[in-house]
Amino acid sequence: MACVLLLSRPLPFSHRLTRTSVCLLSLLLSYLCYCALFPVETIMRKTGDPTPSCQLFLADGAKRRLQKSIPCALPPPDARPSGAEAPRAKRADRRPPSTLRAVGNDAPGPPAGNAKFGSKKLPNAIIVGVKKGGTRAVLEFIRIHPDVRAAGTETHFFDRNYDRGLEWYRGLMPRTLESQITMEKTPSYFVTRETPHRISAMSQNTKLIVVVRDPVTRAISDYTQTLSKTPDLPSFQELAFRNQCLGLVDTSWNAIRIGLYALHLENWLRYFPLAQIHFVSGERLITDPAGELARVQDFLGLKRIVTDKHFYFNRTKGFPCLKKPESSGSPRCLGKSKGRTHVQIDRDAIEQLRDFYRPYNVKFYEMVGHDFKWE
Ligand SMILES: Nc1ncnc2c1ncn2[C@@H]1O[C@H](COP(=O)(O)OS(=O)(=O)O)[C@@H](OP(=O)(O)O)[C@H]1O
């Protein structure tokens, strides 16, 4: 406008030059105003740019984890709940990375952050046993690793819910990014005959973790748990022996049967190579949780991120617990059902059970190539 008014009057050449400069200057000012009002980002979104950069909305840590999957690791359209918006459109999704590392408790739901990223996948690794071995401790300790996400509750898919199908099973899993491992734990799998075959039918590459513990202590732990729910239960000895004087052990009692590790393992080895099964010592898990977790991380091909810095020994509980996470919250011990005071069993019965299990234990040590020293 200013340009038009100035040019409408005849002026000398030098004045015309000045007017041209004024004109160019006003054009430049108009352009700058336009840029300020309509930034490039807005324009890209309006024109439907398909690859918005996630990095704009994520703090440093999350950026690093997402780098491999940029452009944005959105779930495929079919994996997103209907009507769900793309992550960047929602304020709630712009959570700090610390929430990705939320520590689970006894039977936790999925950590709050990261909820809309990634997709639900069938597990790459399963803690298959053994009951009362320390399976919850292993899952809760490994899931503080940023590259691990786990189903909080036991799914019992391969033993009790197999008829529901793999898609049902997948639906129970947390969302994961491509770089993350999906895990679950159901301790009864180890002693269920059909399970190895069914897991191998899902994927022959599934990594298996078995937390083993002295079968005598394990049986007493198992009995203590049942007794806490059924107070009028017969005595441990009555259940454990068909004839205690003759030292005849009742192997049909589940608390005894579960501890025959060598027999159960034979069944797994029909479907999986030994190298695909990792054995955690339930005893060392208590005395050296960081050492056991280092081996679990190596087995899963993970960087050793969970270390002794994450644990402290809680004297009141008598077990290792997780330290307070960097961000907030309080130290985390497992729930009351983990680390109970055991029912007192007389020494003779314990000795008889030790004699009974010895040959099975020796066979188990030979099979796995490791002496767990249960004496
Ligand atoms: N850090 C820590 N805190 C608490 N408890 C721990 C821990 N590490 C291992 N354990 C041992 O875990 C035993 C329970 O095993 P599981 O989690 O496999 O039990 S269950 O099968 O899921 O019911 C539980 O057995 P009990 O002591 O007999 O209760 C514990 O000995």
TrEMBL record:
Gene Ontology cellular-component terms for this entry are: Golgi membrane
Q: Which cysteines are joined by disulfide bonds?
A: C321-C333
Q: Where is the composition biased (Basic and acidic residues)?
A: 87-96
EC number(s) on record?
Answer: 2.8.2.-
| Active site, UniProt feature | K132 (for sulfotransferase activity)
Which keywords appear in this protein's UniProt record, sorted alphabetically? Disulfide bond, Glycoprotein, Golgi apparatus, Membrane, Signal-anchor, Transferase, Transmembrane, Transmembrane helix
Give the family, as the similarity comment puts it: Belongs to the sulfotransferase 1 family.
Its protein name is: Sulfotransferase
Organism, as annotated: Scophthalmus maximus (Turbot)
Q: Which gene encodes it?
A: LOC118287893
